[in-house]
Design a protein that fits this description.
The protein has 369 residues and is mostly helical. The protein contains 17 helices and six strands. Helix 9 runs parallel beside helix 15.
Length: 369
């Protein structure tokens, strides 16, 4: 057992015993002690689940700080609401002279017993955050801010900084990094910066999108930027992983035959760029209208033939693989399946497609639309 685990086990056993003693003597104490002490006893006995989360604070405990200095620091930060009780618990647990320097994340106005649990566990270890496939860069920034990791402002500044990598060379002038921030799980800690996270996501793209994949795209007459652009559309269309190569095949067949892609996600992207629409519909409006389909934009693949100017989201590596190695099928159409499970019905002819549309329209999910 590690030193950290042993210390934590000792503290948890002590707290369990202490809570039991408090519970047994609660009635007696409340009838024989001043009102303020009774309130402290209630706080010590309160389980973690009833502690209100009124905000979090990140506290850096300095090397060599005494228990008194640490308690004072926690009180000033609004974390410790009863320094005397906390000191008593630290002494009881034998931690007064053994607290580790480092960064701790604590909740405002925590009961002393909860603070002790956090301090006993030691400084916060690196944490992780996962970005799923198909997110916009703005969605990533908002997630980072919501989780208290980075601000949207810092994220936007980092996105605008010049970046160099061979795989970025095929982008047109002025293109953003959208499409090149690889969805994955990333570790972060107090030293993580927006610029560092952007670089980590670009590095992950460079590792996962291999030279062989880039070469496979070239054999289809596509630059990497075009591959990523189409992969972003595939990513937004494919709810089932097994359908990515099929959906990629549909779009590639359409490109080859000069048929407009008519991909709804590109229209959703256009809708989101109209001022006020993100607040009204989110980044991906679900129910598109006839008016949405005719919004003028080079990204609207209902109005324009070929690929849009760039990616509409950040695709995962599997969608990129699907574009450079699509299924060998003649399909030109697909529509949501009447199974209502996110899968699709595929067709090679318009007549087959219209029949599939009727099947979907007669289904429970089709009628719901």
């Amino acid at each position: 057992m590690s030193t950290r685990d042993a210390r934590r086990r000792r503290v948890m056993l002590m707290l369990a015993a202490y809570t039991l003693l408090v519970a047994l003597g609660l009635a007696f104490l409340l009838s024989n002690v001043p009102r303020t002490l009774a309130a402290n006893v209630r706080a010590l006995a309160a389980p973690a689940s009833v502690v209100p989360a009124s905000g979090t604070s990140t506290i850096d405990l300095r090397e060599g700080s005494s228990a008194e200095e640490i308690i004072e620091q926690l009180e000033k930060a609004g974390v410790a609401r009863d320094g005397k009780a906390l000191r008593a618990l630290l002494d009881l647990a034998g931690l007064s002279s053994k607290l580790q320097a480092g960064r701790y994340r604590l909740t405002a106005n925590m009961p002393p017993a909860e603070i002790l649990r956090v301090l006993a566990d030691g400084p916060n270890r690196p944490q992780v955050i996962t970005f799923r496939e198909g997110l916009r860069n703005e969605e990533i920034g908002e997630t980072l801010q919501k989780e208290g990791i980075l601000s949207v402002a810092d994220w936007e500044v980092a996105l605008g900084q010049p970046r160099t990598a061979p795989f970025l060379d095929s982008r047109p002038d002025g293109a953003s990094l959208l499409g090149y921030l690889m969805p994955a799980t990333y570790a972060y800690d107090e030293k993580t910066t927006a610029g560092g996270l952007v670089q980590s996501m670009l590095d992950a793209f460079g590792k996962q999108v291999t030279p062989e994949m880039i070469a496979a795209g070239r054999t289809r007459g596509m630059t990497l930027h075009q591959v990523v652009t189409l992969a972003s559309i595939v990513e937004r269309e494919a709810a089932s992983a097994t359908e990515r190569p099929l959906i990629a095949a549909v779009f590639i067949n359409r490109l080859t035959q000069g048929v407009p892609l008519q991909a709804d996600p590109t229209v959703q992207f256009v809708v989101s760029r109209v001022p006020g629409n993100v607040e009204r519909f989110g980044y991906w409006k679900r129910a598109l209208t006839t008016a949405d389909l005719v919004l003028p934009s080079p990204y609207n693949t209902y109005l324009n033939q070929g690929l849009p100017p760039g990616p509409i989201a950040n695709p995962g590596v599997e969608s990129i693989k699907a574009v450079v190695n699509p299924a060998g099928v003649p399909y030109l159409y697909f529509v949501a399946s009447p199974a209502c499970d996110g899968t699709h019905l595929f067709a090679a002819t318009l007549a087959e497609h219209n029949a599939n549309v009727e099947r979907f329209s007669a289904s429970s999910c089709g009628k719901g639309n």
